[in-house]
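DUF2378 family protein, pasting as requested.
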Amino acid sequence: MEPKLPARPSAEPRALPRIPVSVMEGLFLRGLKAEGRLAERLLSYGYDIKKPEVSYSVLTYQRCVNAARAEAFGHLSDEEAYRLLGRKMVDGFLETLVGKVVAVAMPMIGPARVVERLPRYCAMMGRGEMEVRITPAGETARRIYFGDIYNRPEFLAGALEVGLERAHVKPTVTVEERTAEGYRLFLRW
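Structure tokens follow.
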């Protein structure tokens, strides 16, 4: 009989999520076409657009997203800016090598299946640890809870809009609830 390994102590910190370079490339290179002051700020936070690493700490990613918000959309409200950043991220990601595979499938599988695949898409983007709960709210509506402390809910709302537009529907995505552990979005198409 093999000895049991001790359970991981609950006080031990978990490793931070790693964001793959395809997400960074999608948002900053393809979506925002970062140059000048934005490229300099990204470099100061550890993302060199000319010499990318394989993945980045979610904290580096978060700092870079916040820098992009200030540089690209400083004139907008937080809600508008982060929604646009989410849209830019998905538009750009779907132009990457990895994203092109996803982009081909979206129109064929339709909006309901795009939504069902959200946990898989989140994992592909480096967020496999993130809790995603999808609750039907009618034939063409869903409530989606994201256990996410790293993104603004508007960022994910903008990302979902683009994903569903690629599935040939016109969605509306609203933030229904915010908590310290995550948020819930209401999605209708």
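Note for the archive: The chain has one domain: 18-188.
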